[in-house]
Fold these 4 entries.
Entry 1:
Amino acid sequence: MSDIGQSVNQFIVETQRTHSSAADDLTGLLNDVISACKKIANLVNRSSILGLEGYASSNNVQGEHQKKLDILTNDVMVEHLNWTGHLAAMVSEEIDDVITISEDYPKGKYLLCFDPLDGSSNVDINLSVGTIFSVLRCPEGIETPSHEHFLQKGTEQVCAGFCVYGPSTMLILTTGFGVNGFTLDREVGEFMLTHPNMQIPEDTSEFAINMSNQRFWEPPVKRYIDECIQGVDGEREKNFNMRWNASMVAEVYRILTRGGIFMYPLDSRIAKQGGKLRLLYEANPMSFIIEQAGGVSSTGRERIMEIQPESIHQRVPVFLGSKNEVERVVSYHK
Ligand code: AHG
Ligand code: MN
Ligand code: MN
Ligand code: MN
């Protein structure tokens, strides 16, 4: 049963009841993640008032200059999740190593990978940012998980989701039975089901890519974008529109709502690092959501969720969204 207006908590409990194969004991963990996201929504919303804009003095493991809010939102996630007994360990964009659970607290059977603040270059200009998360099972018998226990294919994910802190705060969730969208009702402090069973149209005439990197792209990407830009008189015989939010959560939300293709391809500038977006806490959870909504997600050369990860901060090229467009750009790579 999925009724518009249902709270996210009721929705999760009922999903577990109706699907006997649903992972058990997820409700508690998801409630912890949801509490953290509500706290982050509040911090992001009030960041100017609280003096939280601008950069910190540190870099993260990927060499990015951290925003103050990158660090604070990471802390919120850890503080909401390390003591509740649902997790065995965590991996975050902002922390070099695996985040272990203190001996003072019980350990749970899940692992969590997260990007606490996605699109953080947007935070000082009042555009959408978000939080992305992916839930994996902790391998049996492992008391203190380390790097290698997180190196599971995206197909092993139990649950994935993201929150967008935009004009509305929204939560998008999949546990492998479709994709559902919830809107935070600030008056009651709960996420309510507003977008049941989200489906991505197979066709689209809207693409998202950072065009300023055009000179670094590989030939298949250049060809695909050239053909889109030629419009109605070119190969594709139709006009295309372009959007670039520089915030993957906002792009994926748009694609879930009206279709589209999002690309952060491999390019000569970032080839050595394997791409821009991170596999465990950006590409895999977004791929799970996109596929569950009927879309496709690929590196251009393989299905993202079938990549065997080699390190926790590994990066990959990403092409995701409406089936027919993603399949077209993938075919150009062959
Ligand atoms: P993050 O803010 O978590 O580091 O991620 C930013 C990502 C993604 O959200 C977005 O699609 C992309 O980086 C934007 O990159 P450019 O600034 O190169 O356009
Ligand atoms: Mn970052
Ligand atoms: Mn990100
Ligand atoms: Mn981030």
Entry 2:
Amino acid sequence: MFKQSVFIKSAADKSGWIEDEIPEILFVGRSNVGKSSFINSLANNKKLAKVANTPGKTRLLNFFDINNSLFRLVDAPGYGYAKIAKDAKMRFAEMMEEYFDERENLKAIVMLVDLRHKPTNDDQEMYHFLKSSNKRVLIIGTKLDKLKRNEIIRNEKLIKETLNFNPNHTFIKVSNENKVGLEESFEVLIRLIKE
Ligand code: GDP
């Protein structure tokens, strides 16, 4: 897990990006999927990413320095929040596209999905987009502790089928509640930026 983690800044567009060569890993996921909790678990810091922000409210990329600039973690706003106005959705899409298309520091993407549910249309669109970008991708299935034993294999299969999962991508099941899968996730992150 992270030895050091510190919030650096937020940015609405490329004018706010940091100019250097430090690799960045982008974290995306539906609002409420457990993204903030996962980041906080990796950092062992309950306050690093704000848990229980009004879902979908922040429309900024948040940049964190991890392990003294080993890499930067870039936390994207949660998507798929029904009450967000259309123009805010557009701004989100534009911000993400600009970052995906133009950010050379971007080395890998972590996408979180809720292990309890079939991926939504928004999830499917996001994953489709990630596949077409040819970046390295890690899928994190959250809330493992909420599943009964016999649901685990079934739900993973449904999620992979629904997403049309690329077997070259890694899929890790985690529980932020029970701190399961965190060390493995961190090891994969390190591998993704070093590949
Ligand atoms: P975000 O909107 O994706 O940042 O989601 P949050 O991290 O704020 O989590 C949303 C809700 O799910 C909160 O109530 C968390 O406590 C809960 N949660 C997150 N991860 C887990 C998990 O692994 N297990 C369980 N049981 N609850 C979780």
Entry 3:
Amino acid sequence: SLSIGIVGLPNVGKSTLFNALTKNDALAANYPFATIEPNVGVVGVPDPRLERLSKIFGSAKIIPATMEFVDIAGIVKGASEGQGLGNKFLANIREANAICQVIRAFDDPDVTHVDGDVAPGRDIETINTELILADLQTIEKALPRLEKEARTKKDKEGLALVDAVQSAQKVLNEGTTLFAGAAAAGIDLEVLRELHLLTAKPFLYVFNLDEDELGDEELRGRLRDLVAPAEAIFLDAKIEAELIELPDEEALELLQGMGQEESGLSQLVRIGFGTLGLQTYLTAGPKETRAWTIRKGASAPEAAGVIHTDFQRGFIKAEIVSYDDLVAEGSVASARAAGKARMEGKDYVMRDGDVVEFRFNV
Ligand code: GDP
């Protein structure tokens, strides 16, 4: 499955967050490099629709979609030159499909900041600079070979690749990540895929705030502006760690007391899933209600293939009711009677929340 790498400076709350995410009770330690081995956790994607559907269908169990989080060792200045755990850090991050930066915004005299004081903007720049430098190194190494190949083969693709790599180099030299700067520079990141550039991955940001800052709209707006167009999630990692110890109802009460409807962890997983370019469709019956993971833009046969390759090969059609229609009508039979059940063929592009039954030959 696809994974999100959690990165950030030491002591910003990465382990606290990761442990809360995976309900792993390994202790979060108060010193740099506490997380030396990357930890991988599989996390269920929260989706209130599953509960509702399982009631309609009388399902015996619910199976949510899952995704992976990898807790990657803390980055420090000079990581791109092998400082700290530099090389290991870069290798781990290269394997992740998206990057979640945890940025410290909480104040706590008992928790040292590697650079002396709490400054979210500076920290984001420190991390991005290391990732940008690593990408520039990758490009400097690859470019002579790519240029030579393009010259000898004179193929269009090779030339387009060299062109894209040179444009990427320019963006990076200006101190901009490819995620933030590629579109404006007219670079198609698909073309650059084979270089496995770090800053070409989708980014999202978690700001780890003090409890009393959670409702501070002015601060949130300022932090959001620092990272746009990336998604920003605001939470207090310490509170998140406490919330998972509570029964659901008490947790919700506590959250609402802080003016929140959804826990930070839940937001992180939900938004992270979208950042990976993924969406779900749903199946439901007496045995189970289940969310299946597909990439955004997947066709109906591709969606069927996630259940079984035979379903894709033998795909005939899919009977689809949207989740909202199904809930409004109360059952598939009523949805059919109301003309809300659609028969879709092999060119149908799946939509989020489609409740599906596939028809296929075996
Ligand atoms: P990492 O090095 O980024 O993995 O950071 P840790 O998760 O190990 O956290 C470092 C220290 O900061 C620990 O003592 C945590 O208890 C503390 N910490 C983490 N999140 C918060 C927070 O939101 N508020 C406060 N006050 N302390 C936190």
Entry 4:
Amino acid sequence: VKPLPAAWFVPHDTNAEMRWEALRDADDGPVVGRHVPVERFFVRNHTGTPLIDPDRWRLRLFGTGLRGAPAPGRAVEFGLDDLRALPSTRLGALIECAGNGRSFFHRRQGHRVPGTPWALGGIGSALWRGVRLAEVLRAAGLTGGAVDVLPTGLDADYVVGGTNYGPVRRPLPIAKALDDALLAYEMNDEPLTPDHGAPVRLVVPGWVGVASIKWVGSIEVADHPLYSPWNTDFYRMFGPGHPPAGGAPLTAQVVKSAFELAEGARLEAGRTHRLHGRAWSGTAPVRLVEVSADGGRSWRPARLDEPARADDWTRWSFDWRPARPGRHELRARATDRGGATQPERAPFNREGYLFGAVVAHPVTVV
Ligand code: MTE
Ligand code: MO
């Protein structure tokens, strides 16, 4: 993982969490635009970052969903230049870890959950360039019978608790694969960096981050459902109120919002502060953001500072003039055009996925 400037990241084991205040260094300091610079973008690695020679890298496609059903040893191969020769697409899209916000299951709802204790910084937006997965699947001989597509990463096997789960890989239903999934080779107009999946990663807009497989080396295309631990043992809802084998594999991220402020940020009393934040949803553009400065008793709409989009976050702002010094709690609450609003409590699940409840953000007024 990249070196971690403490002003930008909170380290968690092999992961690096973006600090929200790093999007806005100070009240009037430098501001990060819609897309997060690569050096400030969060990193989530199950194991370690592999260094792959782009000249020797090959993407191998095989399986019963391709013409002639090539076996792994007879895969259809693409090099980086082959991908670059196909029509390219640029797409501004978020990647958000399914576990983003997980620490609030404990901090707000009293549930201890295992896994990376993210606050809200397991997310970032970037401008991706690459070739649509649909394009590559068709070039490889996709048949009408294909059901599932299984991209596999070239990172080390994931070994935990004495079990080797093999390389990180997760099946994607063919409908999503053909809809908007991108095989990206650039991030913010530069070649991908090793931490973010160089030379080529998948970007699956709106879906849990694990769908966006980094360092992709092969893609199996099958005319039957495929399984991997990442859609059976992990990334389902487990625990009370959920089916014994877990709910359906997780797909879209839920509606959320965050302030571009440090926890416990200090603000001056008696003057108006323009508070900034971002809101997003994996299923629909954001329609409304409301802010409360009185513990959730009253809410006022924030200003949406740009047109909302489906795949990206929307920046918003809110003027607040705190009168009285002391500790205050700010809250933001987003609603998307599908009608989903951030709830007071998130549905508990054993692994702490999809925490989308309203979060109290403490600030100190001086
Ligand atoms: N792909 C591979 N091969 N190995 C991984 O560990 N982590 C996934 C996904 N793709 C992962 C992966 C998870 S859980 C997330 S949230 C995103 O990558 C994070 O992408 P980023 O590190 O570029 O922010
Ligand atoms: Mo993740």
